[in-house]
From TrEMBL, chain A:
Organism: Roseivivax sediminis
Described purpose of this protein according to its UniProt entry: Part of the ABC transporter complex PstSACB involved in phosphate import. Responsible for energy coupling to the transport system.
GO molecular function: ATP binding; ATP hydrolysis activity; phosphate transmembrane transporter activity
Keyword Cell membrane annotated: yes
Protein name in UniProt: Phosphate ABC transporter ATP-binding protein, PhoT family
UniProtKB/TrEMBL annotation, chain B:
Keyword Cell membrane: yes
Protein name: Phosphate transport system permease protein PstA
Membrane topology annotation: Multi-pass membrane protein
Domain ABC transmembrane type-1, first and last residues per copy: 223-435
GO BP term, example: phosphate ion transmembrane transport
Family of this protein: Belongs to the binding-protein-dependent transport system permease family. CysTW subfamily.
UniProt lineage: Bacteria, Pseudomonadati, Pseudomonadota, Alphaproteobacteria, Rhodobacterales
Native source species: Roseivivax sediminis
UniProt keyword list: Cell membrane, Membrane, Transmembrane, Transmembrane helix, Transport
Length: 267, 446
């Protein structure tokens, strides 16, 4: 992180504990070197935004953090990623257990074609978080409340999750993700399929979620990154160019590429 | 468009503008081509509909008479003495025939048709072997001696065809089976109401008869044969096919070997069914020594034939489940298997079931492979008795039975073959209707 030969500047002034630390991460898609030498420390209880032009590798890197890239056969990950000091690519790590700890919300709202209740209850059920029905009810209610959608759906928990509006679906997906009590929440462009009002609601929600979780959000919108995140990482062509406090990145970028991107000259 | 002159000021916009109300030549040509294409399409559909109607009409016209049967109903009282007397004779059935003719004449007289005179010879031609049928009844039920018993006995197939209008008097010259004079008796019997042409349940429930008795032939035993074959196909092909497709689609690594398997499955779907028949003959009968003509073997052969169809349709419906559902399941920490069985498979189920039913319908109508394992040509003379007997006892199947009937010389069997086709088509339509209903019911919900 502090090695000088990298074309990257670092400016961190934070007291939070490090949740995820990655060192020297390389990702290959077949012969394509998609992520090069990414070192990053993601802190607990704040929002970290990954920004950068399309194809810069920010989503790829995000998907490394809960090993979703395992499902792509040609994808190969090298380097170390530690969560709470444990190597997530260790042979003994079961990705299923990891994903319970590191929840994920996807770009397109993808509720299961089941009832709202079943959508949220599915994770706790397969992880055995509830001993009985009333405990499960509690978990579902808590998750829906945390995702700020409880008031809208509490009277129709048996209705299909796919029948909700786009913004509601995305908040349902967030509820589904937080229902398994994760410690990290990964969000891959969670608002790109939503209208401005729904986006506002989800952003507000992200701001609240940071009290309990370490949130990592990938976004195309620099305004969004500026609004919701405390730390920002700028990716370009597979490199992590600059990482630091959001305010600094946007007002006083150290790297010329970052400046070009946030002023709209590249990307 | 291009005739704007050089000295026209561009700012003035003096481009000659074409009216959009007048159609130009190019548009007219395009519209004409479109109209022509519509007519071609309608013509193609028209031709299709015409042939469909022609086929339906000819099937119904030739096949419906097979569902009716001409029968004579006579109330009969046989005393113990008459029974003993008949049993004591050398030609026992002839004695019963005598009783029957006497009763029939009495019935006719009662109905006021005493001018119709029946003889034993004529009854033999019109009704066939009535004597033996009556004798068998009384030998089986000796306690009914002395009471009045109502016998409904079928007339011969030629009488059937005469009453259905498929046999004219002129065609009867030189026939030892039915003489023109007999037709007068038939007319008399019909007029007096003793002979009735009625719906014949025996055709649907009964068993096949010998070549000399087309009227008594029924499809029931071979329907059961087909049923047991379909049972074998369903029990084997559905789980094997679905398991294979889930593995190939969701778990198998993408490499040369799985590519090879994929190509082979596609090829298997196109292999002629008779090839599966000869494979079944070699493997199941000659090598494994399973009984010939058994629905178990037929079912095994049809399973091999149906598997590729089920695998291909199952894989297609698994593929059509959006990847976002899989990602969502993995994202909340479901294992690969949980994501498949909790989310992907339920969503793919309607497609899988539709494919399976279509595959079964295809197998139900398959004749060629049955040819080689001995299910064609076998006369199904009895109903299977329970599951084991249904699977292992020799039987025929619907299409095989139809083929057997069509191959017999008596024109009455030809009629039965058409009737069998109607039953087979009803089954197929029924299965396809279920497939359509399933598809509609569980339309994709995302």
């Amino acid at each position: 992180m502090y090695d000088a030969d990298h074309n990257r500047t670092e400016s961190r002034v934070s007291q939070n504990e490090i949740k995820i630390s990655s060192r020297n991460v390389q990702v290959y898609y077949g012969d394509n070197h998609a992520i090069k030498d990414v070192d990053v420390d993601i802190e607990d209880r704040l929002v970290t935004a990954f920004i950068g032009p399309s194809g810069c590798g920010k989503s790829t890197f995000l998907r490394c953090l809960n090993r979703m890239n395992d499902t792509i056969p040609i994808c190969r990950v090298e380097g170390d990623i530690h969560i709470d000091g444990e190597d997530i690519y260790d042979k003994r790590v079961d990705p299923v257990q990891l994903r319970a700890k590191v929840g994920m919300v996807f770009q397109k709202p993808n509720p299961f074609p089941k009832s709202i209740y079943d959508n949220v209850a599915y994770g706790p059920k397969i992880h055995g978080l509830a001993k009985n029905k009333s405990e499960l009810d509690d978990i579902v209610e808590r998750a829906l409340k945390r995702a700020a959608i409880w008031d809208e759906v509490k009277d129709r928990l048996d209705a299909s999750g796919t029948g909700l509006s786009g913004g509601q679906q995305q908040r349902l997906c967030i509820a589904r993700a937080v229902a398994t009590e994760p410690e990290v929440l990964l969000m891959d462009e969670p608002c790109s399929a939503l209208d401005p009002i729904a986006t506002g609601q989800v952003e507000e929600l992200i701001d609240e979620l940071k009290q309990n979780y370490s949130v990592v959000i990938v976004t195309h919108s620099m305004q969004q990154a500026a609004r919701v995140s405390q730390k920002t990482a700028f990716f370009h062509l597979g490199n992590l160019v600059e990482y630091g406090e959001t305010e600094k990145i946007f007002t006083n970028p150290q790297d010329s590429r970052t400046e070009s991107y946030i002023t709209g000259r590249i990307g | 468009m291009t005739d704007a002159t050089a000295n026209a000021a561009p700012a003035a916009g003096r481009r000659t503008s074409k009216s959009i109300i007048e159609t130009d030549a190019n548009t007219r040509k395009r519209n004409a081509a479109e109209a022509r294409f519509r007519y071609y399409g309608m013509a193609a559909i028209g031709v299709g509909l015409f042939f469909l109607c022609a086929l339906t009409f000819s099937i119904l016209r030739s096949g419906l008479p097979a569902f009716t049967e001409t029968a004579v109903t006579v109330d009969f009282t046989l005393s113990q003495e008459q029974f003993d007397e008949a049993e004591g004779q050398v030609l026992k059935t002839a004695a019963y025939e005598g009783f029957f003719v006497r009763e029939l004449q009495a019935e006719l007289n009662e109905e006021g048709a005493s001018d119709v005179e029946v003889s034993e010879a004529a009854v033999g031609r019109i009704m066939g072997k009535v004597g033996s049928q009556i004798r068998e009844f009384y030998r089986a039920n000796p306690d009914r001696l002395g009471e009045e018993v109502s016998f409904t006995l079928p007339a011969s197939s030629r009488v059937d065809r005469y009453l259905n209008g498929n046999l004219s008097r002129e065609q009867l010259t030189n026939s030892r089976f039915l003489e023109p004079d007999d037709l007068d008796i038939v007319d008399g019997l019909v007029e007096s109401g003793v002979m009735v042409n009625a719906f014949d349940w025996g055709f649907i429930t009964g068993t096949d008869s010998g070549v000399d008795n087309p009227g008594g032939a029924g499809l029931g035993a071979s329907i059961m044969g087909s049923f047991f074959m379909m049972l074998v196909v369903l029990v084997l092909a559905l789980p094997i096919g679905v398991a294979a497709s889930i593995y190939l689609e969701e778990f198998a690594p993408q490499n040369k070997f799985t590519d090879l398997i994929e190509i082979n499955i596609s090829n298997l779907a196109a292999v002629p069914s008779i090839v599966f028949g000869i494979l079944g003959l070699a493997v199941f009968i000659q090598f494994a020594h399973l009984p010939q003509s058994a629905p178990l073997v037929g079912g095994l052969v049809l399973t091999l034939m149906t598997l590729p169809t089920i695998i291909i349709s199952t894989r297609a419906s698994l593929k059509s489940v959006p990847p976002s559902i899989r990602a969502a399941a993995l994202g909340v920490g479901a294992s690969k298997m949980q994501s498949v069985f909790h989310h992907v498979l339920p969503l793919a189920m309607p497609g899988i079931l539709t494919g399976t039913i279509i595959g079964l319908a295809q197998a139900l109508g398959e004749t060629a492979p049955l040819l080689l394992i001995g299910m064609v040509g076998y006369v199904a003379r009895q109903h299977p008795d329970g599951l084991a007997s249904g699977l292992l006892d020799p039987n025929s199947a619907m299409p095989a039975q139809i083929y057997t009937w069509a191959a017999r010389s008596d024109p009455a069997f030809y009629e039965k073959a058409w009737g069998g086709i109607i039953i087979l088509l009803v089954f197929l339509l029924f299965m396809n209707a279920i497939a359509i209903i399933l598809r509609r019911r569980f339309e994709r919900r995302w």
